[in-house]
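Predict fold of Undecaprenyl-diphosphatase BcrC; 159 aa.
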Amino acid sequence: MLVLGNHKFKKHVFFSGVTGIAALIVNFAITLFHYEERPFVAHKVDTLIPHSADASFPSDHTTGALALSLAIRSRNKRLGNILLVFGLLTGFSRIWVGHHYPFDVLGSLVVSIVVVFIMNKLWKFFDSPIDRIVTFYETIVGKIFRRKTKDQGSDLSNS
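Predicted 3D structure, encoded as tokens:
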């Protein structure tokens, strides 16, 4: 996604990635203060998919999926709504396979909403540096693709 699209789109992708990382950092901070056993540990049930017996609350998979989809939704409602469905399905699947309680997924939704809200408020302060980062990225990628095109062109002319 970072190769395709215009400058504004690449900034949105960057925003979404940073927001997803921020949400996962919040999850990590929560687990430092609150530990809840996973359902398969607390209730001695077999899971569909093996998983480590670390903290259950909140769900990292769900937080990541929801934070990304909500961040994208804040910039592109149509695409964000589609991805939000997948984020919610991620949460449901985490419950289905026995890795999380419904409250873990609800907690992930709350973390994601709060982090996206805060990141949207803070983003204006970082717009200029992010603009420079994306411009630098575009310069590097542009040089790589031009070099590949020239290399491929020279191979064809030598045949």
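Residues 102-157 form the longest helix (56 residues).
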